[in-house]
Amino acid sequence: MKKSDKNFYRENRKKSKEFKKREEYLEHELSIMKFRRWRIHLPFRDFNIELEDWVPALAATIGKVVMVTAMVAAFAAQFGLSPEFVAENVRFELLIAGGIFVILFSAILNPRANLAGTHGPMIPLIPIIAAAGGHPLALGILIGVFGIILSLTKGGSKLMTLTGVGVRGGLLIYLGAMGLIGQITKFETWTSNADSGSVSFAVIGITILIYAYLARIKKRWLAIPLCSLIAGLVAYSMGMNFEFTTTPGLPHMNPFWWWGETTGWQIGWPNFGHFIAVIPFAILAVAMWSPDYLGHRVFQELNYPENTDDVLMDVDDTMTVSSLRQIFGSLLGGGNIASSWGTYMIPAAIAKRPIPGGAVLTALLCVLASIFGYPMDLAMWEPVLRIALIVGVFLPLLEAGMQMVQKHNDSLSAGTCIFACAFVNPVFGWALTMLLDNMGLIGDRNRSKELSLKEKLIIPGIMFIICVVSLALVGQLPGIPGIF
């Protein structure tokens, strides 16, 4: 950072009481921050920590516990590992990846790189990965290597630029709608199994009313902590059982323990065959990153004021951070597969806050949750985690997608994208409709005429081929048996 830039934020900062509305103050804060790639940034010199930063921090911590638990539990089920192993590995991920990596990369070195979270779409593929002879460490290393290659070649930002508005909107609508339906279904199933079906009706009904009111008064950034808290209280008051089981402590910190023959994962270190087995899955994981990262940056673009480019999430740098976190996290013993942290970015963008302030608080909360243990139980309780994901991720995704689809041509691209996503999955839907949209076969034909041959056909075509081949290899295309 240049010397003239170091004092820019402090010299131009104003107190919140100088503004008529809190929103005006937050937008002014965004407009005077000048983040630079891979330079030292410090709290109160280059950014401030506000009350609103607690919202994405709480949401991110809840989301981290939920998603990492789901990821590690899926691996544990395939390798015959105990629930105690899952809790220990989640605690390890919270301490190392959730704490140290977040502070170092997204708060200090590069505040334009979003936090490295969990790659949710990979969870259903874990049984296939294990059946193919995959090894979690081999998978993590290859995902990191492929991700660094994509980020260094600026492939992520290029793909984002080539994804038209209609395709973006369709992708967000599909992800939001499917996720919303999935979370409601899982919550209703949980209450039905406990012979308390009325609990899901009461909790979701109250959530709808609170969320609608928050949207009306333009306080949606409060949705995750407020709705999750009320959901937990309502469920508990209606007789749903809850108890703390994870006691305070520290996880194992020795990689040799985690990757031992009789300790940790109990599968030892990977061999060459393990790396070969996970190649298609690693390619697919990185191919999935672009639409995921695209959706997160869109929230900043929709909620931030103009002339705030210096605080917008950088897709390529986020890929670099996720890749590094993936490699080191896996080497140390973690079972998480990394991606852009959606449960952080979405509420942070809605609250009009930049990345670093909430990142500091997120790291603090993750470390505390890891050490004390009990907050992990609360975050994983069904009413809390389901409502947090509904109001913090999937409803905002759905709303953002609907906001983007305003023109008739864009609605055609969005409809095709939703159709293709439903036919196979979001990766296939995004790759196919990006190719068709850029070629002018759907969507805005005038936009297609302005693109070069490379932008119109070559890059989208190569991306489509990579996605289709990767999906075919792992058996994710309907009616086509996988090789692995």
From TrEMBL:
Keywords, sorted A to Z: Membrane, Transmembrane, Transmembrane helix
InterPro entries registered for this protein in UniProt: DUF3360
Entry coiled-coil feature ranges: none
Highest taxon in the source lineage: Bacteria
Membrane spanning stretches: 54-77, 89-108, 128-153, 165-184, 196-214, 221-239, 272-290, 327-349, 355-375, 387-406, 412-436, 457-477
Name of protein: Membrane protein
